[in-house]
Write a structure and sequence with these properties.
Blueprint: E1 4-6, E2 9-11, H1 21-25, E3 34-36, E4 43-58, H2 64-67, H3 73-77, E5 84-99, E6 103-114, H4 140-147, E7 150-164, E8 167-176, H5 203-208, H6 214-217, E9 221-229, E10 234-241, E11 268-273, E12 276-280, E13 291-299, E14 304-313, E15 319-324, E16 329-333, E17 338-349, E18 352-365, E19 381-395, E20 404-420, E21 449-457, E22 460-465, E23 468-471, E24 474-481, E25 495-505, E26 509-519, E27 538-546
Parallel strand pairs: 12-16
Antiparallel strand pairs: 1-2, 3-4, 4-5, 4-27, 5-6, 6-7, 7-8, 8-9, 9-10, 10-13, 11-12, 13-14, 14-17, 15-16, 17-18, 18-19, 19-20, 20-21, 21-24, 22-23, 23-25, 24-25, 25-26, 26-27
Length: 547
Amino acid sequence: MNRIFRGGAVYRRRIEVMLLAGVCGSFANGVQAFTFTTPNPDIEMDLDTTVRANYGLRLQGIDPAIGNNPSYDEGDNTFRRYQTILARLDVTSEFDFKYKGTTGFRFSVAGWYDAAYSGKDKSGPGLASVANYPGNNYTSYIKKYYIGPSAEVRDAFGFTTVNAGPVPIDIKVGRLAQIWGQSLIGSVGGVNSVAVSQAPQNLIAATQSPGASLKELSLPTGQVAMSAQLTDRMQLSGYYTFEWAHDRYPEGGTYFGGSDSIDYGPPISAYAGPNFAIHNVKGPQGKIGDIGVETKYRFEKFSSTVELTYRRFSYKTPWFAQFNANNFTTEDIYANKVQLLGLGVNSTIAGTAVGAEVSYRRNTPLASAGSGTPGTLEGARGDTLHALINTTTYLGKSFLWNEAPLAMEIAAAHLIKVTSGAQNFNSPGYSAACTKAADAVALGCSTKNFYTFGVSFTPHWNQVFPGVDLDLPMFVQWNIHGNTPTVDGGNQGSNIYQVGLKFTIYNKHIVNLTYTGYTNWKKTATNVNGAPYSDKGWIGITYQTTL
């Protein structure tokens, strides 16, 4: 049970989902596809099937501030210390057909099953009567995306290259995902980059399937995408979508869920009184018709590429659980007609790869309290400024390692102004829930500025055993200051750290052992700023291979 019903409004805490970037990045190996032999040399057919098995064990006990809190109790009590939180099998298969290297199609499917989840969650002490899942029974949505066995089609598109005079134009039509921009770490720069909401993100898989590639986490949607090489230095790209899909957030009542009432899994949002449930209902979806245009120009003299991006799109992250007073329900509402203008650059300086972006968003959705504008139910909107900078360098062979890639990224978000729904903005001076300015940040209220930093360091050793390479991946994300003003981002004090061992065996089998821990800023005995993960430290083992 997540909400406290007060004075005709439903108050909730904005959740933060921290993408497990350290683990995801540790599987960035080359893919070994199976190539079919055909009698026609102009035809190429490849089949790539990846099998990944994950096992996870909770190492921390339940913190009463989370486990006894009606906002988070079901997600925290379902798995106790030393219980299995993951026993998941993922299979993805991708088929590519090419004719003369320029025309063809791609079709991919993904399937999964997790034996760790039963059909029920568990409430905290004395809270079963206000469970977000009646009788603590999981819904079909949870059974589909968490338990399985389930499967879905991912990529399904055709492609070709045509020539407009001397200019080659690559065209793709169908269901695909593409990510523009310079961000390295999804939970740091990704939500502050020009690629924000460019493709819906599968954040369920990010938490439930450690080792999933960024390609697996970006969900395809129907679109037309084109790229023209205008000169040897200048490229022009664009796309138009004819399908929309929302981000898949970790669901309430699951181990990595935020608030118990979020999002499409729990049928009950809140209780206004004894036996008086406020139900979650499916609200209007975002509009189709996203457009994006990007031009790149290469400055050879400076070993740099400059990018200019414009996008007009519907957001994939909602204003969560907006209260509809007309029928006493809550529903997710998505912002349409958001505009973005961005400038990016990537370069190499003294052997270090450097990427940077600055972008302006107009009419973007801001973090809001749970009662929207009458009629539309929209939360607050505003204009924001975002920036990121990252570096990637390879430390060469030394007595400590054979090589060691080091990647760092820092990102910032700045609120320029609130343009509509100011009374809904979850910030001091706007929302009644944020009147205590001294405690505002700790209580989850948005700030004008937000800064976050992430670093990944992975020492590597060749042939520690015959046929076995070893990596020691380490990752830290630190939300330095403030709570993001937008609906997606982070919270001060809500941090993540990871350390692991990765074994690559004969360049085909990968075994990864990882510990993941979290922190939260707690102002009171029942308050948690950000995603309620600080008692959810866990150890996981992943096996992955390509067939």
